[in-house]
Amino acid sequence: MFTKVKTSEEIIAMRQSGKILAHVLNQLSIEVTDGMSTKDLAEIAKNELKSTGGQPTFLGYFGFPDVLCVSINDEVVHGIPRANKFIKNGDLVSLDFGVTFEAMITDAATTVIVGKTENKQHLKLVNDTQKALLAGISVVTDGVKVGDISSAIEEVLSRGKYGIVWDLVGHGVGHRLHEDPNIPNYGRPNNGPQLRQGMTIAIEPMATLGDFKVEVDEDDWTMRTKDGSFAAHFEHTVLITERGAEILTQL
Ligand code: MG
């Protein structure tokens, strides 16, 4: 399904879904600490969600077993929370979460460095991946083409000489977690499907300190870099408006 122009009621539900999501991701970013298991993070997400009226979109999606994706260091996305997997100071922890509110879905992710790191490359990777997300968002407006967004992201990541993960892309979102069109993190301006105000999309650059190639673990979910290089991931769900993007998944 190509992402639809949302009704005003649907947009109101998505705004609320996005606020809930932003609150949960923010809480996780504050609470993530050395010695915690990745399952502990999923439990925090579940508890934070309880009183909000939101539902965890990822739980059961194509059989995904938990509410949150937690991907550490060379894991790019889709890490399954585990009670025996512990977080250490200096880890790059990517947190990806989805919220369904009144049947409308938003999707967002952030990468945090736990504690303090002396590693300037890691800091730069995280900062630049977030910059790439903002660059992609900055070109969004009524009539934007997917390639305009893709190339804005690619420009930032290429400048930093990062690996741009080809196999994983942004997407339409709203009625379903993944709607068409795909929104790659590389592309040519003035190319690809045209988007209209009222549509909602998830933009999500993923970058590595090495190669772009990724592989799936034996758990059939966790995607990690083939060369073991560290990765970062940032994502927002945005509403396309006449004059630009409204970021739905921020506080
Ligand atoms: Mg997504």
Structure description:
The strands form 4 sheets. The chain has a 5-stranded antiparallel β-sheet. The chain is an alpha+beta fold and 251 residues long. Helix 3 runs antiparallel to helix 4. A hairpin with a 4-residue loop joins strand 14 and strand 15. It has 4 helices and 15 strands. It is globular and about 45 Å long. It is 28% helix and 25% strand.
Task: Summarize this entry quickly.
Helices cover 28% and strands 25% of the residues. By secondary structure, it is α+β, with helices and mostly antiparallel strands.
Outline type: globular
Compounds present?
magnesium ion
Radius of gyration from the alpha-carbon trace, in angstroms: 17 Å
- The count of DSSP E runs of length 2 or more, i.e. the number of strands, is 15
Order of adjacent strands in the largest pleated sheet: 8-7-9-14-15
Structural class: alpha+beta
Helix content: 25-40%
Mean pLDDT rating: 97
Order of helices and strands: HHEEEEEHHEEEEEEEEEE
Termini separation comes to 29 Å
Summed up, the helix count is 4
Low-confidence stretches: none
Largest sheet: 5 strands, antiparallel
Strand content: 25-35%
